[in-house]
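Continuing the batch. This is chain 6 of the set; chains 1 through 5 are on the previous pages. Same settings as before, nothing changed between runs. Recording input and output for traceability.
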Amino acid sequence: MGSDEYYTSIENLPLANWIKCQDGKLHYTRKGSTGSIQLDNEAWEKIYDEYIEVYGLGKMKIKLLKTMVKKAEAELDFCLTGDRFKLTQAEIEQTALENMLKNAGNGSTIEQTLIHLSKWIGHWIKAVDISTKEYFTMIEELDKYNKAYKTNKDGKENK
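Output for chain 6:
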């Protein structure tokens, strides 16, 4: 897999391609039209590993993973013991997972977040014009800005 055939870093992966890859369309890791499913997966693994190394998993992903583990443990306990209560626990965790996925984080898509970033920066940002790293860096900076200037109930600024 050559760097001229595939994106292998969040530094140069266009945000529009990141969005498509998040939807499972990993052929968007390709720079051109040639490649294979195996190479698509390898490129995505490198990109996502770098993302996690730089930005971490995030609270929502950690919460999802913990809930998935609880569900799997309850299902395993049901298989081992036959205790129907464990099956009920697994169903409760499944419902919790579905609710988390419906309201993923703040409920905003990347495209909706780009609208807010565009307003904040003062010019329109297109997903095809910025890299994945630039996008997530802007999100971090916007969060810092919002935390620094968020007002109390009394109308005083937090600093």
